[in-house]
Structures are given as structure tokens and as C-alpha cells.
């Protein structure tokens, strides 16, 4: 099953965007009359027939469609961008495949990078959704200050966790997280959070957690946290 993306499908016939049309015709060599599956990224899955296989703008006719149920839980990963954009792109791709629902990048005291091209991350997310047959595209929020996340009511959701290196706490994420909940988990930069940030997080309801005995790189920690929460909700 190959999956294609097209936003705002609200008519019996519609045209695919040029990039999707090119991939359908030139790479997969689909022809008029073939069946294809399309999602709008909001949980709707459309079974369509090609009525004009054009690499610049393929026309499709909807034969049937249904809504794919949303998960009973919500994983929101807030993470400091790594110095290497490639490492962050790799992580975003993999956590999308595993099943993240929302991603927020933030700038903290020890951040190695305060800016990242989110358009590239959006492309990685959509490609990963197609690869893993995800019908709901994860939300990628604009980069924020860590202080906004810690103190804003906008981020006051469900269970809140902060992961950092500390030999004095051994509360594992899987020991504290409850199934079928909303989770907001903070992963800091490679220099870790500073003490003031940790204290502020705890004062605002974030629970300190460990992801295991190994000291993980930022992108590995993000990947591990998402995998653990998916496993909890298996």
C-alpha cells in the first residue's frame, strides 16, 4: 500500500500536488484506472481511482473514505535542537514513524542551536508518515523559549516530565507515566538543563525522570522517550 498526501479534500474529484503527482507517475509508474490511497493528514483515508495520470497534476476520483480513529493518548516531545541539523532531522523522522503526536523545539540556557529550518522537518515528517502509514500528521510547533513552555498555561497538559542527568533520582519514565494519558516530556541540549531551569520545571509541575542508566545524546533521548510511551500504550 502506497500512501499519498493531499490537504483539504472536500470534493468527489481532486488533483494531487505536483510533487505527489510526480512520485506517483514517474517513480511508482501508476496509470489511469489504478487504485491509490490518499490521506489529508487529519485522520481521513481516501480510496481513490486515477482518472488522469499526469506527472504535473494527477486527477483522482474518491471511491470511498473513512476516518481512522485517533489514539487514546497524546505524546508531546519538547526538545532542544542539536548542533547538527542532520541529527535532529533523523530523530524527527524516526519518532514520526514510531508515533509522536506533537513536537516543540525550544531554546534553553545551554542550547547549541537556537534556529532550525522547520520546513525541512515538515518534509521529513510527511515522508515518515507515508512510510509508516500514519494518517494523522504530527504537529510541529515553532521554536519557543524554554521559559514559555515551563510557565505558560498553553503547555499545562496531562502528565509533565523533565529528563536530565542526575545520579540522585532514579524515577524511570515507565514507572511514572500512566497509560491513555497526555504526556509532555522535556529533553534538554547536550549540555543538559541548568539547575535553575530544572527547579523552575519542578515548581511548575514537571516530574524529574530517568530514561535508563545510559547517558544518551539529545536525539537518542527523544527517540527513547517516544518509544517508551508507545510501548506503555501498546
List keywords for this structure.
about 230 residues, alpha/beta, six-stranded parallel β-sheet, five-stranded mixed β-sheet, 7 helices, about 25% strand, elongated
How many alpha or pi helices? 7
Structural class given helices, strands, pairing?
Answer: alpha/beta
Distance separating the two termini: 23 Å
Ranges with pLDDT <50 over ≥5 residues? Answer: none
Proportion in helices: 25-40%
Indicate the mean pLDDT: 92
For the largest sheet, list the strands in their spatial order: 8-7-6-10-9-11
Assess the beta-strand content as a share of residues.
25-35%
Summarize the structure.
The protein has seven helices and eleven strands. The protein is α/β, with parallel strands linked by helices.
Describe the protein's architecture and organization:
This protein has helices at about 20-25, 85-100, 120-130, 145-150, 175, 195-205, 220-230, and strands at about 5, 15, 35-40, 45-50, 60-65, 75-80, 100-105, 140-145, 160-165, 180-185, 205-210. The chain has about 230 residues and is α/β, with parallel strands linked by helices. The strands form 2 sheets. A 6-stranded parallel beta sheet has the order 8-7-6-10-9-11, with helices on both faces. It has a 5-stranded mixed beta sheet with strand order 1-3-4-5-2. Strand 7 (about 100-105), helix 3 and strand 8 form a beta-alpha-beta unit. The chain is elongated and about 65 Å long. The mean pLDDT is about 90.
Amino acid at each position: 500500500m502506497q500512501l499519498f498526501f493531499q490537504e483539504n479534500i472536500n470534493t468527489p474529484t481532486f488533483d494531487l500536488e505536483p510533487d505527489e503527482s510526480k512520485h506517483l507517475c514517474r517513480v511508482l509508474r501508476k496509470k489511469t484506472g489504478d487504485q491509490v490511497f490518499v490521506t489529508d493528514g487529519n485522520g481521513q483515508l481516501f480510496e481513490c481511482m486515477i482518472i488522469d495520470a499526469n506527472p504535473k497534476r494527477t486527477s483522482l476520483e474518491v471511491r470511498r473514505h473513512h476516518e481512522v480513529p485517533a489514539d487514546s493518548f497524546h505524546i508531546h516531545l519538547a526538545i532542544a535542537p542539536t548542533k547538527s541539523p542532520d541529527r535532529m532531522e533523523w530523530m524527527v523522522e524516526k519518532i514520526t514513524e514510531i508515533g509522536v503526536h506533537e513536537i516543540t523545539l525550544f531554546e534553553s540556557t545551554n542550547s547549541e542551536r537556537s534556529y532550525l529550518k522547520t520546513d525541512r522537518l515538515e518534509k521529513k515528517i510527511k515522508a515518515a508518515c507515508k512510510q509508516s502509514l500514519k494518517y494523522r500528521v504530527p504537529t510541529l510547533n515553532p521554536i519557543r523559549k524554554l521559559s514559555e513552555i515551563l510557565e505558560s498555561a498553553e503547555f499545562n497538559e496531562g502528565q509533565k516530565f523533565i529528563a536530565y542527568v542526575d545520579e540522585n533520582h532514579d524515577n524511570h519514565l515507565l514507572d511514572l507515566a500512566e497509560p491513555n494519558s497526555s504526556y509532555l516530556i522535556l529533553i534538554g541540549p547536550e549540555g543538559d538543563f541548568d539547575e535553575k531551569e530544572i527547579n523552575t520545571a519542578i515548581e511548575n509541575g514537571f516530574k524529574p525522570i530517568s530514561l535508563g542508566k545510559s547517558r544518551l545524546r539529545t536525539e537518542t533521548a527523544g527517540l527513547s522517550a517516544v518509544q517508551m510511551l508507545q510501548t506503555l500504550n501498546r
